[in-house]
Amino acid sequence: MNNIQRKVVIVGAGAVGATYAYALSQSGLAEEIVLIDKNEDLVKGQVLDLLHGQPFIPTVKIRAGSSEDYTDARMIVITAGAAQKPGETRLQLLQKNAGIVKSISREIVEKKSEGLILVVTNPVDIMTYVAIKETGWDRHRILGSGTVLDSARFRHLLSQHCGVDVHNVHAYILGEHGDSEFAAWSLTNIAGMQMDQYCPLCNNCIDWKSVRKNIEQNVRKSAYHIIDAKGSTHFAVGLALVRITASILRTQNSVLTVSVLLDGEFGLSDVYLSVPSIISDKGVVKIMSTSLLPVELRLLEKSATILKEAINSLTSEQ
Ligand code: NAI
Fold it and tell me: Are both 140 and 226 inside the same structural domain?
């Protein structure tokens, strides 16, 4: 055990894992970044490529590792798995990736890790559920990247449409990280003004109701559009992962729409879903029981039903 306090282990050195490592290395957040992949040549190449950038970034150790590194990792970030193919839904990835996440989780337990697990592999809500079932850990220690990325896409589109700096647009996508996700319009605001107040005052669109629908639809389809165009999505998710990492390593108590295990919140249990939660050095320290509109609650329930059905299909086939 080498007692490195800010050691981040990334399992899966493909497009997402490597982009996250690249962004993380520049952030100054981690003391050590360890990459693991079943493809040893790939890890070797990624590590060398990252190391050659060291003169230009804050001091950080970067190396290839093994499961031994789980023991003293502060965070283990799982990006290992097959990526979404053009036209493939995240749920279709389910069976392929569940086996991978299960075996990684088993090794993490064997190595007596005391860190946190952040799952990114898709379908992320179900993979995070697989990880908690396999480890038996407390729910605050295992989270999924959830809709942090989707909320960023939502904020970007609103910012473009409204002509307002993205940092002043507060907006959340909730539910499944996938086709049943939805925009929580009741929580969306610009300069503290809810959209129902803001839209009628703004002259940027004539039919703001249909604009909203288009924006929400665009967020939902973003991953498909990018995958069709270039094969995978990795830049924005890499940054979203750095944002979550910052909240953990710096105890920022940030409100992020990570995927969390619900246990009665919003009347739902035994399912991982994205809702606004406070993220700190202990992981998920608080799930915000935000008041949602009845229509939004129904959409959250719909996501939960879809994910539970997928989980059931998984357990019955394994
Ligand atoms: P990729 O194919 O480029 O990389 C995956 C890597 O995992 C490969 O290098 C592969 O060798 C490795 N791997 C597979 N099994 C392994 C095992 N048992 N142990 C160690 N390494 C293993 O795929 P990409 O594009 O990096 O995507 C990774 C995952 O992240 C996919 O499931 C993808 O759908 C998901 N993703 C999630 C997002 C989110 O917001 N949650 C956004 C974008 C992608």
Answer: no
Residue-level pLDDT at 5: 86
Q: Among residues 140, 156, 177, 234, which one is catalytic? A: 177
177-190 burial, b if ≥16 CB within 10 A, otherwise e? Answer: bbebbbbbbbbbbb
pLDDT in tens, 297-308: 999 999 999 999
CA gap 148, 150 in Å, rounded:
6
Helix (H, G, I), strand (E, B) or coil at 10: strand
Q: Does pTM top 0.90 for this prediction?
A: yes
156 a catalytic residue = no
Q: pLDDT of 107-142, one tens digit each?
A: 999 999 999 999 999 999 999 999 999 999 999 999
Distance 12 CA to ligand 1 centre (A): 6
Cα 77 versus chain centre, distance: 10
Please check whether residue 1 lies inside any domain of the structure: no
Residues with CB under 6 A from ligand 1: 11-17, 36-39, 42, 79-81, 83-84, 93, 97, 100, 120-122, 124, 145, 149, 177, 232-234, 237
pLDDT at 254: 98
Q: Which of these three, 96, 126, 144, is where a domain ends?
A: 144
Check residues 203 and 157 and name the one with the higher pLDDT: 157
Reading phi first (left if > 0) and then psi (alpha if -120 to 50, else beta), residue 143 is in: beta
Distance 271 CA to ligand 1 centre (A): 22
